[in-house]
Amino acid sequence: MALARYLVPAEAGLIALDWGTSALRAFRMGAHGEVLETRHRPWGIMNLPPATASMADGEPGAAFERALQDTCGDWLAATPGLPLLACGMVGSAQGWREAKYLPTPTSLDALARGLTLVERRDGPPLHIVPGLLQQGALPNVMRGEETQVLGVLAGLALPADAPVLIGLPGTHSKWVLARRGRIEQFYTFMTGEVFAALRGHTILGKTMQAAAAPDDDAFARGLEVARGSDAVLGLLSHIFSTRTLGLTGTLAPTAQADYLSGLLIGHEVASLSRAQDQTAPAPQTLVLCGEPDLCRRYAVALQTYGFAVPTIAMQATATGLWQIALAAGLVVAPAPSSSHPFTAGSLAA
């Protein structure tokens, strides 16, 4: 008689939420911190689901509760009492409840102690991770990226005092200097948003055409211009060359967006390089975490400017939320086990 194998899903341990401005990602996590299921909804804090005619929308948080129920209501019903932990703009002044910023340097334990509690009418409360505030003549803030950074750090096998530079490219790129469990300093570059604005709302976009595939040569050309002999003229001078190279026939319409991307990312990495020259000791470990093609572009730019080959981190936000949940006592670390996240059984055929 043959034996067939079947899998029994591991028991859930946490519902983790990455709740931003434009989207909500939910992770159903197992008792060992593994991601059992992921869902993505368009319910960012600026685009919450509206109430239907039969719904009362008067109480604060009603729209957020609808978004939560639409995204993972069945998870909550299947495992009552499962802890809920969220990071991102849901903790902003425009979010479900404001989670105050913590000052940098900040540790994992400080973030865990600083969780903001949102009581819910039915079911367990929602815990929100605080953002970070870096004081100074030009203050800097982050909300959500601190959790990504902790997720990246959890996956690195480094001495506790070894500095790590973590890049989070995106709409507002962040570069974070960290050590194990501790965020020390960070920079923000509005590179992604500036690219979108220049392409969509200035004369530069009038001659651009969509390309069937990324033009790596045009991107590399932009990088080289950003670090060329006339780099002293700065970004505002360089970006106009996107138009003039097109007008003179040097740059094809389908290559102009990638060239502009190279210019912007090149100037960002050049500024980062100058900042890192002032860091002692300089980080030997470099990690990128973000959308794969964007990380690929940044890896090319970093090596062009003499940085080491970066490591690419995946699923860092879910890992970071699990680390914070452990530190806050929302979940309990299970005893070490060699078993797979799924339990194998057998069934007589």
What can be said about this structure in brief?
Helix content is 32%, strand content 23%.
| Derived structural class | alpha/beta
The whole-number mean of residue pLDDT values reads 90
- Residue stretches low in confidence (pLDDT < 50, at least 5 long) are 1-9, 338-349
Number of helices, where a helix is a run of at least 4 consecutive DSSP H or I residues: 10
Give the proportion of residues in helices: 25-40%
Q: What is the ordering of alpha helices and beta strands?
A: EEEEHEEEHEEEEHEEEHHHHHEHEHE
Q: What is the subunit arrangement here?
A: single chain
Basic shape: globular
Provide the gyration radius in Å.
23 Å
Distance between the termini: 7 Å
Largest sheet: 6 strands, mixed
Order the strands across the largest sheet as they lie in space. 4-3-2-5-9-8
**Strand elements, count:** 17
Q: What fraction strand?
A: 15-25%
Defining key terms:
6-stranded mixed sheet; 349 residues; disordered N terminus; single chain; alpha/beta
